[in-house]
Design goal:
It is a single chain. By secondary structure, the chain is of the alpha/beta class. The chain has helices at 15-31, 39-45, 71-80, 107-115, 183-186, 270-278, and strands at residues 5-10, 34-37, 53-54, 64-69, 87-92, 120-131, 134-138, 141-145, 153-159, 162-169, 171-175, 199-204, 214-216, 222-226, 233-237, 240-245, 250-264. The chain is built from six helices and 17 strands. Strands 1, 2, 3, 4, 5, 6, 7, 9, 10, 14 and 17 form an eleven-stranded mixed beta sheet that branches. Strands 13-12-11-8-15-16 form a six-stranded antiparallel beta sheet, with no helix packed on it. Helix 2 links the parallel strand 2 and strand 3. Helix 1 (15-31) runs parallel beside helix 4. The termini are far apart.
Length: 283
């Protein structure tokens, strides 16, 4: 049987995860896995990364991506391995860790169980937007935001060719079910349970008493327009700036089904996660 390979991705602030890196290296060695990482990853953690091989020694795709970090690191890993069928398993070393399979105190157990194959995978949808001729994929959200020193934006959006909203605002967010608990939730948008086929569109600080979030069917394409005579607005995927929407311009956002694999430990559920991370929805 071929030796299994896991790619390691860690938090941008190394001290928090360095001890877990050493645990991961030892766990991989004991389980008969190869653990690989980029040169930057290995340099971040010094001696703790001893035994972790360079990722360029990887002859093919990995069997698992192990993330020691927060939701941002997990989202980066999901984008990196989008459509590749590689499960992404995270241990939370960030703030919320909504996408993580475990917390820091459970790192050793979680890593050992992941390498033993004791994980379940969830097919995650994404949102695809083409910017400057390149497709960008988001697993949380695609956002259109005015720049801090610019005037209030004037954005419109169409669903399946029909205009639904035209509002002065600070921006607009299209969020997946996994991302509905992020920027969209801050906009008073609805939470979509994992497994819902569709996405949600919400305005950022709308200058309107009637602007409401809208849940959109997966087959319906979102067209976002920026009014002529206004300033450009920034376009970001999962919080990462990827371009701009020019005045008078428009961009399309499309639902992309099953483009990522998120690994979870058995026995957890979306509703349990909501309660643990955000508290009861009603008291």
């Amino acid at each position: 049987m071929a030796e299994k390979v896991a790619v390691l991705i860690t938090h941008s602030h190394p001290p928090a995860a360095t001890e877990a890196v050493a645990l991961a290296a030892a766990a991989a060695r004991n389980a008969g896995w190869r653990l690989v990482a980029t040169a930057d990853e290995r340099a971040k953690h010094g001696d703790a990364a001893a035994g972790i091989e360079p990722v360029d020694a990887l002859p093919g795709g990995p069997d698992l991506c192990l993330v020691l970090g927060g939701d941002g690191s997990i989202l980066y890993a999901l984008r990196r391995f989008a459509r590749a069928g590689v499960p992404v398993c995270g241990v939370n070393f960030g703030t919320v860790g909504f996408l993580a399979a475990g917390e820091p105190g459970e790192a050793e157990e979680g890593i050992n169980r992941a390498l033993a194959g004791e994980i379940e995978t969830i097919d995650l949808p994404g949102l695809a937007v083409e910017v400057d001729g390149e497709e960008r994929l988001a697993f949380n959200d695609v956002s259109f935001s005015r720049r801090p020193q610019d005037r209030v934006a004037e954005l419109s959006y169409k669903i399946a060719g029909e205009e639904v909203g035209h509002v002065r605002c600070d921006g607009l967010v299209a969020a997946t079910p996994a991302g509905s608990t992020g920027y969209n939730l801050a906009n008073q948008g609805p939470i979509l349970a994992w497994g819902v086929k569709g996405y949600v569109v919400s305005y950022i600080s709308p200058h309107s008493l009637t602007a409401r979030a809208l849940v959109v069917a997966p087959s319906d394409v979102l067209h976002v327009g920026n009014a002529g005579g206004r300033e450009p607005v920034d376009v970001a995927v999962d919080g990462e700036l990827v371009g701009e929407l020019t005045p008078g311009g428009a961009l399309e956002v499309r639902f992309a089904n099953g483009v990522g694999l998120l690994a979870q430990l058995p026995g957890t559920s979306f509703y349990q996660r909501i309660r643990e991370k955000f508290g009861h929805l009603a008291v």
